[in-house]
Amino acid sequence: MSNTMLKAAAGFILLALLLAIPKQVESPYALHMMILLFLSISMGQSWNILGGFAGQYSVGHAAYFGVGAYATMMLMQARQVPPWIGVWAGMVLVVAVALAIGSICFRLRGPYFVLASIAVAEILRLSAINLTALTNGAEGILVTELPAFKLGERVLTDFSTKVPFYYIGLSLALLTIGVTYGVQHSKLGYFFQAIREDQDAAHSLGISISLYKNIALVISAVLTSLAGAYYGIYVGFVDPPTVLGLDLSVQIMLICIIGGMGTLWGPVLGALVLVPMSEALRSNLVTDLLVKVGLVNADSKVGVFLKENLAHAHVLLYGILVVLVILFMPDGLMGFVKKLARPRKQEVA
Amino acid sequence: MAVFMQSLLSGILIGGVYALIGIGLTLIFGVMRVINFAHGDILMVGMYLTYIAFTWLGIDPFVSVLVTFPLMFLFGGFLQKVFINRVLKAVAQNQILLTIGLGLIMSNTVMLIFTSDYKLISTSYSSSTLKVGGGVSLSTPLLVSFLITATITAALYWFLLKTDTGQAIRATAQDREAATLMGINVKRMSIIAFGLGSALAGTAGALIAPTYYIFPQVGSVFTLKAFVITVLGGMGSVVGAMLGGILIGVTESLSAVYISSGWKDVVVFVLFLLVLLFKPSGLMGKSRT
Questions:
Q1: Which residues form the domain of B108?
Q2: Which of A23, A180, B30, B63 has its CB surrounded by the most CB atoms within 10 Å?
Q3: Which residue has the higher pLDDT, A245 or B280?
Q4: Structure ipTM
């Protein structure tokens, strides 16, 4: 069997497993973890198209995430528009926002682009806080009841369990991976990478820099807005710091960077590493483990302190990981894995 | 008119502290071409040092500058030697990511130690004001911090212009390779520059500690402000950062009065984008090459 067929077979088995999980697994917590994983993959993969392939490090991706989330939630709350219709409005809006941002930020290069992308996202966050009539300001928007999803008269789901969210998340993650695959294997992808490697050389070869940067941005922004809308309806609550904040922008890019930029599976790997790790910290698994192993006494001062505070510090992990990645594996985990695999191949040859 | 003068003067006073933050960032950028995304977090560490000195040792925030400055200098030098130094030749994006990571580590470590509760340093003069006539009164802590800022800036200026080390730092900023050929220890200058930049940020943190809430995430606001200030003034220009700081202070203070306090930061960011678009070299900067 050839390599490609092996890969395809493995892919099908994996997909079948993923489709079967909600039928076999009852635990809402396990489903919640998978949903977070899908969300992270989608966010990282969306960033990957602009940051990884086209080389434009946007540190303002919360802007698109937030616009998608807010548009869907606002339409649902104020006009009772169901999310599967509202999300289209969000996408149209996000394209407009992305093109506006692109026309400003893509005149700038390197660090200046990074700074401009942050500034634009911050302007959106502050606007969401201040436009109280539209966005409910700092209090955020809460929507607990989702309308039932009907096909004709038949109710497909009423969103009372996590299962429909699981399948939406899985489709979203597959969509972003699919789009990335499509980009990677098309002329578009080569143009993006040419711009990333040497903008001036690409320009001299007749590649329209601003056109292709904007295409990369729009693809990336639309996918990010889908992730945002999905987050909004899953959590049922959005407010400016969580969906438009700088922290979110940083997290989005870190998923991709830790995993490996400009590779198809980098963001997936990044999400696979980051989600369980930060969940373990958040849910106090680490503290419990330390107590069980006997390193820390649960009732001692240290134990109580860890239990109370370690949960809030899961972002610390992001910081440590990104420093380690930049210093020791600048190509991300993906590059590191490949590097480990390479010498062995040479021995065989 | 009194309202205008009042907000103009308070803008200039707070702008002095902003200038200190901006000068620190511009110094680091000038010497190493690294944009320090952890700048606000370094400032935050300075704030907490001040908080510790005040609550545990009873040292006045303004006096604690004498401790904060050298400690933050060492901290910055350490950051440069251990982390930043390794990525000086890497692409700009990786340098940015490294400093973002360092900033996350700082803010979250502080959160682990002090929790994310808001802390306050309340001194006898925290809310006292000084009447200057014409219906204008100035906040005493802001006035004191402005004077300290002015002193430090003048001292720094003298240091950069007149001392051998200062000249070596400027030479390194102008041309790293040429400086190396002239026998300047470029690595050492980088450590000093990062140390100084951090010390300035930490000092700014100490100076605003009596008038600001202290919490682990306070840094990101100041990181962004520091960028706006330095880009406005021209990346790498110390005089530009001074002007930029005061300009931003005044813009904030005036737009808080005449537009609304909720939108004042938006005004600043819009100004920032306009500068990036129309004069990316800033007020005092030379055009980019």
A1: 20-219
A2: A180
A3: A245
A4: 0.83
